[in-house]
Amino acid sequence: MLIVIFGLALLVLLIYGPQLWVSRVLTRYSSPDEHFPGTGGELAHHLIKRFGMDDVTVEQTDQGDHYDPVSKTVRLTPDKLNGKSLTAITVAAHEVGHAIQHQLDYKPFIARQQLVGVAIGAQKLGALFMLAIPLLTLISRSPKIGLLIFMIGISSMLISTLVHLITLPVEWDASFKRALPVLQAGEYLSPTELGHAKKILTAAALTYVSGSLASLLNLARWIAVLRR
Known about the structure:
It is a single chain. This protein is mainly alpha-helical and 228 residues long. It has one domain. It is built from seven helices and three strands; from the N terminus they run ααβββααααα. A three-stranded mixed beta sheet has the order 1-3-2. A hairpin with a 4-residue loop joins β2 and β3 (73-76). It is elongated and about 70 Å long.
């Protein structure tokens, strides 16, 4: 019993721990600092121009910082777009890092984008199949039908897990092979600030680790429910 409790506690820590830590790290370095020559949004504009991405734009969003490859838009929340903080600068550089990946046709980035749309539909379809198993099995009176639908549902949910697993290296590349080298080479940050920027980028990447674990946990939960 103690082993089960310990295992559950460890799983909860692995899933929610990174989320709490990233919130703490981002907040810690979100204080305005006027020694930065520009805001996160201004840095994004500057880097986009520097790398010749004339078709990429920057705009404000309330839906979380991200790069939209469909419209080729770097979207930043107001505190990042208009803020002069280490968090604003680092997050802006990270999102531009995704735009650089897109420009270079970075294969994992392209693969993730192709899977995202499929995963959203597949996850909804998978959940629908899971809920329909008892009813369809009862109507058909054939366990094979239930098993077939179960396999379809599980397969569709696995696509979502695959997207999470692909996302982590894509995010890591945008942070540590795109954003950080650019910030360092351009001397946008001091050596001390670069060290803190690494913490911000690492914390952000860990949220995708927790996302992968949460996806796997959801899959295990469905399997456990259906075994009852």
